[in-house]
Amino acid sequence: MANVGVLGAGSWGTALSVLLTENGHQVTVWSIDENEVNMLNEKREHVQKLPGVKLPDSMVVTTDLEGTVKGKDFLVLAVPSPFTRSTAKKMAPFVAEGQIIVDVAKGIEEATLLTLSKQIEEEIPQADVAVLSGPSHAEEVGRKLPTTCVIGAKTRKTAEYLQSMFISPVFRVYTSPDILGIELGGSLKNVIALAAGIADGLGYGDNTKAALITRGIAEITRLGVKMGGRIETFSGLTGIGDLIVTCASVHSRNRKAGYLMGQGMSMQEAMDEVKMVVEGVYSAKAAAKLAEKYGVSMPIVDEVNAVLFDGKSPAEAVNDLMMRESRSENRALEWEE
Question: Which residue is catalytic, options 118, 189, 209, 285?
């Protein structure tokens, strides 16, 4: 049995806390929100974000950050991506040398263009930072529906240790050394999911969705490989797998926000309606900046940014994507004559 601290009591942090507790570990969950902690302790259920999923009696929920971090075998950082750096900064004084921190959020910091693991390493250089990602909506993990994810870590030892902590009959975990590829796939797919939601809101069909998924993974892979990620990662669970579920699922907050924008809402109105952090909005500008920095063409990302921040109509954005200059699907394939 491991002693685990989970930072963040939203839907994903709660679902993973329940999973780890049911795997036999002692779990302490921290939230900065005292009202959230009181609700979880009184109701033993996250009634807003994860209704119907009961918290085990042994799970501790607290606002005590030091007590959640100190002496734990490993930590799970599950706060929304915009708060990763600030939370890591608060945690840093209590993290021991070599203590494992598993980040489970997805995003890129606009100001620095750093992935979440790099932000954590800047704030907590003594930590052993790993990531957990994949097609894994909290609502389904909470209901114990079969799910698969990937642990990315610097060493095989850390990856396999975490794999043994999380794996269960309903939660299969693979390992990978490609932390960068895992994080890029998990972050950039949220931007493509906004586009998929916009297309749904406009009333487009399955053909459009399939086009956005396949051309979206092409964009993600181009950038990811240029930045140093492994091409195999983008054809796996945290690449095409996570992209499919986020573009298609009713649970996807990014798809839902896009859908509302396709229906005519502004970005802010859509985010207010979703009532949770829409991480694709925070990653969109960073994705465009990375594409420019590395000289990579990402037309879907460009059009999403134009809709989000420049007032472009969704219908016009789709038209501009469809009427781009004609080209081959894959320039690496050569003609015989």
Answer: 189
